[in-house]
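Protocol step 4 of 6: structure prediction from sequence.
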Amino acid sequence: MTDEPRLQSHTGPNWLARILTGFGYLFAIPLFFMAIKIVQEYERGVIFRLGRLVGARGPGLFFILPFVERMVKVDLRVVTMDVPRQDVITKDNVTVKVDAVVYFRVVNPEDAVVKIMDYFRATSLVAQTTLRSVLGQSDMDELLSRREEVNQRLQQIIDETTEPWGIKVTLVEVRDVSLPPDMINAMSRQAQAERERRAKVIHAEGEFEAAARLAEAGEVMAAQPATLQLRYLQTLTEIASERNSTVVFPIPIDLINMFMGRIQANGASPGGRGQRRDVPTVAPPETPPAPEPSA
């Protein structure tokens, strides 16, 4: 007794659907132009029969039952969606303005029609919320230097949210990050200071290497004193090539001592070379006395 109402409740709508389907086939001949449907290669037609989901058809040419079946077209191509500019406060309390772009497509047209009313608007709102949430958990330096990691994190979170709707998010890119003018000036000063630090370090390293080389050269010159004279003469040669300058040529004491030693050696040798000779002095002529003035 209790099973008969259940059987009638389940079989009633099925008999009604069969009757309406039969009438639909009868009316399909005169209403041929309403029954024929064409779906493009990049589209699918989701068919509803008396409000119930039948499935997706296409691409190509197929027929539906007029007044009984209804078709909803779904585009399967990749959709490029701009995420509006968002004001985000980063983890280190820096206010930035960020906009992004999301690439997604429909992989299950049945879920995209049945489980969500407007999948395009829903994906846009999810992308905006996720963008503010993820960037709020990141530092400004991470946002600027690790852009790829941030993009992958955004893509993963948005894809997990939209997967039950039959949507596949293929790529998310943070397109532009606008910083306040004060922060831009601070970053430029920081970069300039970093460059100056590197320049000073490089200059100090060069001075250290030059001092080491000069120490090695000093050791070589100390072992061979003649190298100092040769280097001195080479420097004078390089200076003499420039004729627009005056060169003061100092004579080394060692060179003077060498010549003095030779002169003394020549003065002590026999033969009278280098001996001092007495030269006779000649008295100057006497001048006549001046005449006395006459009275």
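Step 5 (inspection) to follow. The radius of gyration is 52 Å.
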